[in-house]
UniProtKB/TrEMBL annotation, chain A:
GO terms for cellular component: plasma membrane. GO terms for molecular function: ATP binding; ATP hydrolysis activity. This is Peptide/nickel transport system ATP-binding protein. Belongs to the ABC transporter superfamily. Residues 4-254 form the ABC transporter domain. InterPro entries: AAA+_ATPase, ABC_Ni/Peptide_Import, ABC_transporter-like_ATP-bd, ABC_transporter-like_CS, Oligopep_ABC_C, P-loop_NTPase. Keywords: ATP-binding, Cell membrane, Membrane, Nucleotide-binding, Transport. Gene3D superfamilies: P-loop containing nucleotide triphosphate hydrolases. It is a peripheral membrane protein.
TrEMBL record, chain B:
The lineage of its organism: Bacteria, Pseudomonadati, Pseudomonadota, Alphaproteobacteria, Hyphomicrobiales. It comes from Bradyrhizobium shewense. Residues 95-304 form the ABC transmembrane type-1 domain. This is Glutathione transport system permease protein GsiC. Belongs to the binding-protein-dependent transport system permease family. Pfam families: BPD_transp_1, BPD_transp_1_N. Keywords: Cell inner membrane, Cell membrane, Membrane, Transmembrane, Transmembrane helix, Transport. InterPro entries: BPD_transp_1_N, MetI-like, MetI-like_sf.
Length: 329, 313
């Protein structure tokens, strides 16, 4: 049963240089309790997609079109007031920068309390008690003292735990995590991921995880959607995608993951890279969006955009040549 | 915190001492001899010399200064050359109107300027923003006395809604007191409102770009909560600073405003004292204003710690 169905999402921005098609016709769904990862390099539209789901894109200059059906309702048709009732309650969000995502002049307790008081109608005492509970749940020691502290008194990892506490306080059905571990130490990253997974099981929330870290994807996602230049280029269950990526861009991404090796034993390899740059999204693109950087591109690719085609079980990719298995992973 | 406030109060002592030295030097270096002024046109040189001796004006500078400071520390600001009344009593009589005018202006400014600045920042680039900022430039460019006379002409003379001039003490009722202060406060507040509104807008614009504002939106907060709690508290430090600096502006403006609206306050006393070369009165007033300013600065520093938990002393 699909909790979220996104249909032909288009988020465009008016800029002095023309219309920037940051997200251009992306469709996907998330089932209840499922973890979907959205991967892609910087500027591919993955963060804009997540902000569009929450309708946090400033309009103007932004404009969101298409349909975002959440639990049967199209979020794009809701009034601002109805949308506010969903934000932080049914759908909540964790951001990349724990250092700057918390308000520096309000106590941690107050920032957790707020969502509970708005959405659950709790009074201050009840909300405070619940805030302490949430801090305990996310593994912050001495929660009774910490609720009265300010963000600058906490470390980066602790602040991200607080963000998770805020996001999960109202038992959301969907949690959108936009690069939740990117700004943290590697050791803390693992802790935060484990915490997210534990809590997801407890609360039963679905997760949309936005990341460019394929290690994280392999660890916690069930399905993966690969985005490039504002479009979806491939989608598959996580094991399938890692085993047999079909789109040359996905193959490039997987090839660019560093592997352990040593020059002493002769196992060192030069890190693979994808040459070239993401195309300018303010200009209309004819043909395949990836053609400019693809080693396999032909005239066909440059003239006709490939549609998303079934390439395997629950596996789709937008490439003229993927079906032929022309490139081995 | 308390120890910080105490330390700050101690630290203001050297500042006040330097101010006192300057104020006292005024009398010493200013042209004209107070003894001659007191003695009048008919006096003989002997009379002048006698007055000079009785006032202690013949003694060395530092001795005079020391004696003056000693008397001030004991609450004696000296005696007016002109009226022979104690300066502290004269200031006491005039303090009420000026303090009333400044407090009403300060409240009016905060109540008007901060919301205007917040709305301008929220609707940045829109027509509302441009109208507000247009008024701010306008308010900034008009001198107090021009605004004062225009207001008095329209609202007092033509419409007869408010009194033209004068002052009624608070002890005679709240409305009679306030009624007399509305027009002067608007006239005096114009520049101040423009300044505070502009700073509020600039500070809010920067804060509204921050990640935590996005977080607040993602939590489902309404526009009011985002603007006036999450954003304004972060923008408060520059706003409070400018409100504090503006108090110096008010002190200067009060002198002019009191003349326009015939309010018997310290401003009028200052002008009269200067015209009569009544040095003890001038000294007393300047010393008082300096003290108020130092006190306001201390209050601002304390307010910082209330609005921003990262500021600790």
């Amino acid at each position: 049963m699909a909790l979220l169905e996104v249909d032909n999402l288009q988020t465009h921005f008016r800029t002095p240089g023309g219309i920037n098609r940051a997200v251009d016709g992306v469709s996907f769904h998330v089932n209840e309790g499922e973890t979907l990862a959205i991967v892609g390099e910087s500027g591919c539209g993955k963060s804009v997609t997540s902000m569009s789901l929450m309708r946090l894109i400033p309009e103007p200059p932004g404009r969101i079109a298409g349909a975002i059906r959440f639990a049967g309702r199209d979020l794009l048709q809701l009034s601002d007031r109805e949308m506010r009732a969903i934000r932080g309650n049914d759908i909540s969000m964790i951001f990349q920068e724990p250092m700057t995502s918390l308000n520096p002049v309000l106590t941690v307790g107050r920032q957790i309390r707020e969502t509970l008081m708005i959405h659950q109608g709790l009074d201050k005492q009840a909300a405070e008690a619940h805030a302490v509970e949430m801090l305990t749940l996310v593994g912050i020691p001495e929660p009774k003292r910490r609720v009265r502290e300010y963000p600058h008194q906490l470390s980066g990892g602790m602040r991200q735990r607080v963000m998770i506490a805020i996001a999960l306080a109202c038992n959301p059905k969907l949690l959108i995590a936009d690069e939740p571990t990117t700004a943290l130490d590697v050791t803390i990253q693992a802790q935060i991921l484990k915490l997210m997974l534990d809590l997801k099981r407890r609360v039963g929330a679905a997760i949309i995880l936005i990341t460019h870290d394929l290690g994280v994807v392999a660890e916690i996602a069930e399905r993966v959607m690969v985005m490039y230049a504002g479009r979806k280029v491939e989608e598959a269950p996580v094991a399938e995608l890692f085993r047999s990526p079909r789109h040359p861009y996905t193959q490039g991404l997987l090839g660019a993951v560093p592997r352990l090796g040593s020059s002493l034993t002769g196992t060192a390899r030069r890190l693979a890279e994808i040459p070239g740059q993401v195309p300018d999204l303010r200009k209309p693109i004819t043909g395949c969006v990836f053609a400019g950087r693809c080693a396999l591109a032909t005239d066909l690719c440059r003239q006709y955009a490939p549609g998303l085609e079934e390439k395997g079980p629950r596996h789709v990719a937008a490439c003229h040549y993927a079906a032929k298995g022309a490139v081995a992973a | 915190m308390l120890s910080y406030i105490l330390r700050r109060i101690v630290a203001t002592l050297p500042v006040m001492a330097i101010v006192a030295l300057f104020v006292f030097s005024l009398l010493y270096i200013a042209p004209g001899d107070p003894a001659v002024v007191i003695a009048g046109d008919q006096a003989s040189p002997e009379d002048v010399e006698r007055i000079r001796q009785s006032l202690g004006l013949d003694r060395p500078f530092l001795v005079q200064f020391g004696g003056w400071v000693w008397r001030i520390l004991h609450g004696d600001l000296g005696t007016s050359i002109f009226t022979n009344l104690p300066v502290s009593a004269m200031i006491g009589q005039r303090l009420g109107p000026t303090l009333s005018l400044m407090i009403v202006t300060l409240l009016l400014t905060i109540v008007v300027a901060v919301p205007l600045g917040v709305v301008a920042a929220w609707k940045a680039g829109s027509l509302i923003d441009r109208v507000i900022m247009g008024f701010a430039v306008f308010g900034f460019s008009l001198p107090v006395f021009v605004v004062g006379y225009i207001l008095a002409y329209i609202f007092a003379l033509e419409l007869e809604w408010l009194p033209v001039q004068g002052y009624t003490p608070l002890t005679q009722g709240f409305w009679p007191w306030l009624e007399n202060l509305i027009l002067p406060a608007i006239a005096l507040g114009c520049v101040y409102i423009a300044l505070v509104a502009r700073i509020t807008r600039a500070a809010m614009l920067e804060v509204l770009q921050q990640d935590y504002i996005r977080t607040a939106r993602a939590k489902g907060l309404g526009q009011g909560g985002i603007l006036f709690i999450h954003a304004l508290k972060n923008a408060a430090v520059p706003i409070v600073t400018v409100i504090g600096i503006g108090i110096a502006l008010l002190i200067g403006g009060a002198v002019v405003t009191e003349s326009v609206f015939a309010i018997p306050g310290l401003g009028r006393l200052t002008i009269d004292a200067i015209l009569r070369r009544d040095y003890p009165v001038i000294q007393g007033i300047v010393l008082l204003f300096s003290f108020v300013y130092v006190l306001v600065n201390l209050m601002i520093d304390v307010i910082y710690t209330l609005v921003d938990p990262r500021i600790r002393y």
